[in-house]
Amino acid sequence: xxxxxxxxxxxxxxxxxxxxxxxxxxxxxxxxxxxxxxxxxxxxxxxxxxxxxxxxxxxxxxxxxxxxxxxxxxxxxxxxxxxxxxxxxxxxxxxxxxxxxxxxxxxxxxxxxxxxxxxxxxxxxxxxxxxxxxxxxxxxxxxxxxxxxxxxxxxxxxxxxxxxxxxxxxxxxxxxxxxxxxxxxxxxxxxxxxxxxxxxxxxxxxxxxxxxxxxxxxxxxxxxxxxxxxxxxxxxxxxxxxxxxxxxxxxxxxxxxxxxxxxxxxxxxxxxxxxxxxxxxxxxxxxxxxxxxxxxxxxxxxxxxxxxxxxxxxxxxxxxxxxxxxxxxxxxxxxxxxxxxxxxxxxxxxxxxxxxxxxxxxxxxxxxxxxxxxxxxxxxxxxxxxxxxxxxxxxxxxxx
Length: 400
Hints:
The chain has helices at 17-32, 51-64, 85-99, 114-127, 185-195, 198-209, 238-258, 275-278, 283-296, 303-315, 338-350, 356-359, 362-371; strands at residues 7-8, 11-12, 42-46, 67-72, 104-108, 131-136, 142-144, 151-153, 163-169, 174-180, 213-223, 263-268, 329-330, 395-396. It has 400 residues and is an alpha/beta fold. Strands 13-12-11-6-3-4-5-14 form an eight-stranded parallel β-sheet, sandwiched between helices. A two-stranded antiparallel ribbon has the order 1-2. The radius of gyration is 20 Å and the shape is globular. Helix content is 40%, strand content 17%.
């Protein structure tokens, strides 16, 4: 079939297998071109199908030669319909790993459930014995807590008062003002329940209890702080409350794992085009301005560059792990450079619908959005027939 992008708001409902495969291969080749990392041996990535989770798996495997297990939701389709981008990404990773002689396994399922955790523990025990790095990179709008059965939904809202600022429809380029009402206390708590550190804690407890977490193991979860422009809707909003909980969990896990020489960190990364960030008002416009400035300064990084720097310059260095005053690893340092933020703020003040194409990198934002789903990739013939049914080697589906 010929697969074209179909969008609904900030989501693309189709994905292109060849486009996804090319992107994964480009990330693999980037890592292979860098110095090898003396890092982990057996790695579990929870939320491994895209973004920082996928990049973590690629860096661990192709940068450090690690065996990997990737956990993600099943995105396989039937009836000749395209699968999800995550499914195609994972297939491309597994095929590349197989060709390189690397050991890897994929396990599909809802990361929040006890069943997925139990299946993962059994897979690790059977195939790897133990893991010495656990990467938590789950992004979801809804969670059913397996311990309580309560379903929670996250919201993207400010706290305390309404918030008004510029935003952009990145499909049309229209810049407008948006006002978002403040979250209720219930909405705040539900957002923390979904996006905080509770599930990360449950994963680490399950791995420890199951005997598949190595002594001296490291675990990392991804977070974001951002600039003053996005503070009210992000770090000072409902998501920020969840990220505070995530950081508190890291401290608790650090004490828990420290008994056997382990360690836990939150890694603060830079703003990037992701499905999650596309859903947050104001943020796409900020990222468009940020990309313009960082690209002009020659310091722009995508997921794979950020993750390689995390592994090679932060997590696995002879001098120990450098952290900020709150114990967080910072790879958002270039984004928050004073000269970068000053120029972004200047563009922000001036940007309108009429000049957005000149003042920002909105076109780059749009292109990266569609690339998340395998579209607008150089060298891919999107007029050609492709088979949407792609098998993943070494996959353990949730129905098995």
